[in-house]
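Sequence in, structure out.
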Amino acid sequence: MRMIFRCDPALSDHLPRPILARGALPDWLRAMPTKAHSEIHGREIRTVKQCPPFIDAMAYGVMILLPCDVAVDRGSFSWDWDIPEPSTAGHPRAPLSFHVPAQFPDAPFAREGQAALKFNSFWTIELEPEWSLFATHPINRDDLPFRLISGLVDADRFHDGGINFPAIWTQPDFSGVLPKGTPVAQCFAVPRAAPQLVFESFDDSHKEAYAKTVAEVLATPGVYRKRFRARRGRSTAE
């Protein structure tokens, strides 16, 4: 799978490139201990830092990064980003724009009277035929002061314009700086073909395998990681 990112040539030296999500794991995860005391269990237990599905979800796909510092003061956003005039007609210069509340009436994520942010795209994204781009909030990143609204784009066909990323600002009292390089969207290439759903009851061999697997997982730490977790290759960037 190749994901091709293109940008305006005038901006190529001013934009952070999208990165593999494994390179954007947060500091709080790196600092988390691998074990912690549980009052309920009365002993040390493993934390999510030792849970491969938790980590692999956060490390999967590609992260789109905020292109510059954005100052935030209780819902007011500003930036000082000195970049050249793009050489492409209709190309944005601002890192943010907005969706008015009327665009998402009565949606469960709406905040009364509050516009949605739109993280403007400075990269086009092209995928291989029959693949779409799924964009969502950086996984398990409730520490970020916004919540991205997920979307699916047929980026094998739509790849000559930028894909923007709408979000709801969730911390109205936040004052500070959203720094350049903040992950704003986690993107995966997904096949467009719908899966064939097959339903079966366990036969004797499946019942035996189920009981054996569950017993091993409960008895021995790291069974999934050592026996079932797939090795993840390193990607290359051109």
